[in-house]
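Think of the structure tokens as a kind of shorthand, similar to the way a musician reads notation: each symbol stands for something richer, in this case the local conformation of the backbone. In the example below we present two proteins back to back. Begin with the first one, reading the sequence and then the tokens, and try to describe in your own words what changes along the chain.
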Amino acid sequence: MLFRLYKGLCALTICLPAALFAQGFVENGLLFSRTQPGGSARMQAMGGAQVALGGDYSSALSNPAGLGMFNRSEFTLTPALSMNDIHADHLATNTFNSAQRFTLPGASYVVHKPGSDSKFPGSSLGITVTRINSFNNDFSYRGTDNLSSITDWFIERATGFAPEQLPAPHNNIPLLNFDEIIGQAYLTFLTNTFADDPNNTSPVMPDDYIHYYSELENLPGETRTLNRSGNVKTRGAQYQWSLAYGGNYQDKLFYGANFSIHTLRYEFDRLYREDSFSFSEDPGYNPLDYLELSERISIEGSGVSFTLGLIYRPMDNLQMGLSWATPAWYQLTDAYSSSVTARWNDTRGTITEESARPLVSEYGFRTPARFSMGAACFIGNHGFIAADLEWLNFGRARYRSQVAGIDFTPENEGIRNNFKNVMNYRMGAEFRKDIFRLRAGFNYQANPLISTLANYRIITYSAGAGIRLKTFYADLAVLRNSDNSRYSPYVFSDGTGPAVELSRAITTIMTTIGFTF
């Protein structure tokens, strides 16, 4: 039952769609499925176009057949520095946020074994770890609103519940049939009136228990204004740990497979605040100094997937590749907690109601399968041009539970009705001169939303350089990607509510250092 409480709350906390900063189950279905092309600095500099290429540890993730092109063993490390800039526009007010973060998005160990048969010249086994998603983001927003308050959302959620269905005053007992956060709003007098009695310690409800109302509601013909501000912080990442094998048949056909373990950690923290309430019909009325809502969600888990791949070389200057990755099957655990604070300008003073304990739930999640194809055209010894196409259907992501009474049908229908099949494409090129390499690339991730009201595509431009020696190599890549999304601190049942328009640009500098033997 606590699990259903959490599902009911979070599905309304963030406006759908929300590509970057998701909190509800439907939104998280996209967030955890929309992974980024990973791999070495070499492949990243070429836009992630790698399905038809080999001889790089990135093949263990994208197309394990590429491991069949190794002729030596190697060990690599790939550190990176990311600079994240976010503009948040809310009610004609723009807030700029910037942060830097050092990470280690990749490492590998590939063992090559020469073949004893001329038809099978060799094979390789790779052990790799690759970051496929980053959730590290911070933004703040502010603005003055005269349309709604979060107290209106509290009231809408509370309507229809009698007082006996609410928690006893100040006992912090989680509810089984009611959003805990609405109970906290009740206990802080945000959804009800206050008896003018200094000795009163309990909220007072109107005679009609079907409709709640607040001391902050508008009177007929009245305009209410307030200042709204908030801070949102997300942390975490998804990593893919792969054990991959690649073989070689007559230097014409390369084949491979991998088994991968996925790890996921996601944390969402937000602080929401309203203050400076003003009422046009009664300018002297000032019941509340401020209200604050704090929420925290932590999700952790792991999963498994498999990938099969082929690369065919019909002629010396052309390679074509195919790769199919199964869904990743996750088992996730999350914990949710919240608190509401109201500082009244009367005898009530400051009241804070917090979760007595986090609400914990466990469930399964399945990402969509992926199918990729690519081609690479070599220009003698001077380099090559490569391109990839990738198909996946975000509407196929699914939640599941084996606990009696837990039904994910509404969430799965929400995923199916909001997300669609997409085709992503990547292009890249490498120019070679002696031991030196120059690279450039482009990566386009299509809009996954069925709705035409928003476009959440991701575009990445990249460039890089490298040097190749007999037993050592080093590559450098610079990536710049941009995307847009929308965040809503609360959403009414008719789909309206305040919105924050987010524009994000990420610059990543990464290097791969490799030792061959």
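Once you have a description of the first chain, move to the second and do the same.
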Amino acid sequence: MATQALKVAVDWDNDAAYTGTGEDITSRVLDIAFFRGRDWASQLTGRSISGTLKATVNNESGDYSSFKGGSPIAGDILPGRRVQVQTDDGFPYTFPILFAGSPLWTGRLMRLTPSPMAGGVRTVELIATGPLGYLNQRDISLAMATSKGTGAAIGDVLDEANWPAGDRALDTGQTTMTRWWVDNLRTIDALRKPEETEGGFIYEAKDGKIVFEDRHHRLASPHTVSQATYSDAPGAALAYTRIEQDDPLPNVFNIMDTAVTLYSVAGVAVVWTHPETGASSPVVERNGGTRVFWAVFPNPDSATDAVGIDAWTTLAATTDYVANSEAGGGGDNLTASIAVAVVATGNRLKITLTNNHAMQDAYMTKLQARGTIVTSDDPVRVTAEDTTSQSVFGERNYPNPAEYIPDTQEALDWGRYNLAAYKDIVPFLAVTLSGNRDDTHMFEAMVRDISDRVTLVGTARAGLGINEDFFVEAVSTHVQPGGRLDVTWLLSPSLPVSDYWILGTSALDTQTRLIY
């Protein structure tokens, strides 16, 4: 690649070292673009999405053609291999926060697609996804828990997804959910539940860690001080090459609407019954044969306000299951020969039955599951409104997507907090900086990260009348043939969400709005 700023590596041998045969592919990369962060700059409406990387790679050697023999990486061109973009040895700065070999993007290979050419250079398209995309290949279910902090809940989801503890950085969170569970959701959807309840932010770090910032994270150092100023003024030390302002109106909201649901727990009841009985009774084969059944609740016969199971009851012989040597219930009673193992995952109970009788198959003539049913109480809607904003912009409602707000007071606090931030128009920007201008610009292009606070001046050529602080919400980098490197940041204004008074952080009489 015709720039001395970046190194691109693929961990073909899967040892997490990026030093094996053919793993440094920098010289073969013709064009590369990679992204991390939110899909939209707003902290309210923007959602963290999986990072992406797309590179065009020279394949004249045929090394990256999966079906061509003789490749030094034959057999290792597999999805899931780690892909990392790093600062290269030619990078002009050495700092504790950024040095040669520092990661700038880390993810997993999705596919290599050859582009055969009758003439010209043969290439492959390398596509990689960030950690959130890599995790989002399975469904997550978690048993119902009580008094669960949002950070702990995110940790539970990552545990269930088998994501290593060393590859995450999670704030504790400010909200404790009275009840929390996950029932058969994709990993990213499961992570969004506590993220939305907290009003926090989940994203992918440069080194591939999954990060969770709670709603107070940016109110503490270093996020209280701008890290750099980018300006359109003639002779500015840091100048951007392009600036775009999004239409601010879609992010004006003067009615904040939250639905609060509380729950009640009933007594133990039969919540699931296997429907096959009599001659249709399922068989568990003799001499160690096993069958797996899933009890699922709520079901069509459940009460309309039933939401799940507080706790499943241990299956009891005769009460919950009966086995006979004949399908209709006759013959020998084999119930004592049945071993039962259960695993609760969300509102599902995995029941594994093993028939230990050496000579006879066992027909399960009765199989049921009991548990304590959780029902939802009558819902409560809590709103916060600003009539002055409504008189200017009309009524603009934002329904809070959070499902686990613990009480009406927190719902009101959430509404007031966000109403103060979004009842008026505020600027959301996309700013592009060229790293090729000089070493200082290249450093900024490499070092700036999600959640960094920066100052943006657009009072000269840009003509936007903007001179204020912003938070970086997304980072997109593109290196074109010839080595031109551009980085684009999505920026959200810091003032509406940072001039709050918080114990232990804020200065008395200078930041007077309370944060919840």
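Compare your description with these statements about the second chain. The first helix runs from residue 131 to 135.
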